[in-house]
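Recap quiz, item 2
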Amino acid sequence: MTSTARRAVSARAVETAPIIRASGLVKRYGDFTAVDHVDLDVYRDEIFGILGPNGAGKTTTLEMIEGLRQPDGGTIEVAGIDAIQQPNLVKRIIGVQLQTTSLFDHLTVRELIGLFAALYNADTSQQRIDELIALVSLEEKQDARANQLSGGQQQRLSIALALVNDPQIVFLDEPTTGLDPQARRNLWDVISNLRATGKTIVLTTHYMEEAQTLCDRVAIMDSGRIIACDTPLKLIQALEQDATIRARVDRDLDLSAIRALPGVLSAEVIEEQLAVRSRDVQATLTGLLAIASEYDIRLDNLATESANLEDVFLNLTGRSLRE
Amino acid sequence: MKPLLHMILANYRMTVRNRMAIFWNIAFPVIFIVLFGFLFTADFTVGIGIVGADTNEVSRSIAGQLEALDAFDTSTGTREDELQALEDGDRSIVIVFEEGAQPDQVSATLYYDNSDPQQSQIALSAVQQYLQQVNLAAVEGPLPVEFTTEPVASTELRYIDFLVPGILAMSLMNSGLIGLASAFVSYREKGILRRIKATPFPLAQFIVARIVSQLTIAVIQAGILIGLARLLFDLRIDGNLINVMIMVLLGAMAFISLGFVISSFAKNQEAADALANAISFPMLFLAGVFFPIEAAPAWLQPITRVMPLRYLADGMRDLMVRGSTLPDEWLNVLAMLLTAAIGLLLSMRLFKWESSTA
């Protein structure tokens, strides 16, 4: 399915009632408020992403919905079930992948999938296990012990474990953190395929590419709050910004002159790397080149980069996602 | 039932594949038994103590003839010393001669060790036969020897008989305390407990599955150790094996629940191991596993009285080699039940799903 088609589907889905409805969620640890009045609606058949830096409260939010943590305030409804009153009913219809789970060391991939299927009182037949293994492409590793798997394979195994009960909703907490780009792309394929089998997926990530490529809708979270929530396209369009101009500079330059150029939103140099955010790339670039030749500054690796979710985050918080 | 059965089955699989667990639960105690068994194997001659050999002509003659027999290792001494030696297991039989009712008559009391029947019965019947012959040989007059038998329970056993129940108690402690604590702490550290919490499988059943598999392993452990000691060293088994296995289960349960307490306290694997060792090590040496604790200084006795391992080792030993029964062992049984109950209650209060609330 192309991404436009996907978004069309989800636009339709938006009109139906949400499958997850969380409102006013609060979680405090002592004086620290980890989740601060979060409202979330997730619709059937969409991939919903929660994007934010480490410590933003993404995992805590997810785990309250999963029934792993008791919220200090707010309400959660999952597929019509009150998740705070009846977490055990919710656990039966959702699949969960936690951020850091290593599994029982001495069991094989097949045995682990069989065991978890049994824990859900679900189908433990060999065909069903084969099916789940195929779904996450672990055929070659099915008889390997969990601790002999690579990071990417372990993540795929935990996704298979999240599917043993054929859940309506699958929660993935930072599924690609720590993976190399190849493994990350493989996992994106697995997740997209899942969505195609009619599951609703909620994932957290601090990779903006992941949110942008994979998710139908993204909630941007920072310091325990959701500060924006929409499709990636709309979030970016809402920025006045057009693109970021980047170049390597070999010496100090007068940033105030650059900031005065037409269209410039911000300009900074970090470790010899110039970044100029602009709402009018053509005008800014022309001005920038003029300054460079006037002061005889060499601009290496000059490039422009279309606005992305990173810029959305920067614009909303004044900080970079990676900080 | 299906989730619980699968979890138990998975626990069996994991245990069988865990080489460290197999080593500590089976190989380690076996090595102890074999090593100590061969180091301290006692000889099997029948020791006879003779008291009052000089009472009169008859006793002198009997004592002289007994001393001449190769089958017996005779020694003479005071009544007190010889009876003590019998109690300590150094004699199989002690003959005490006293003046008979008439000048040419001697009365003999045969004290024998009834806690070591195989050996003392042989000695007893040999001596009885011998004395009867002396009587038959007397052609006229009163019978020269009047004899009675008197059973004495020796407190001392062959070292191997003493050791094996102790080693069994030790290995039940180790697999309960260390095995369970380190498994649960690592489950918590690795996030496995949280992963289980995310499923509809109740924690209580997860714990029950673990207890069931540990208890099974305890019974197998006991079977292997007892069987091996029987085979290699002819371990004395006087008790009812079913009683012994019930004690095995009670002891395993007591230490499993202490393992739970440790796993609730310990923040990580290292802390769990350290804590388990801190608790098990003193018990290993002070609870009468390797030597009788009665021999320890008096000031130590109260300390050993609070050690659960002492009650398990005592109970195990009494049931296995002293022919005692479970009701006789009520104190030791009660100690195990109390330990299990206190441990489970404590750990239910202290249980944590995860290492930290992050």
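The two ends of chain B are 34 Å apart (CA to CA).
Chain B touches chain A at residues 2-3, 5-7, 10, 13-14, 17-18, 190-192, 194-201, 357 (CB under 8 Å).
End of item.
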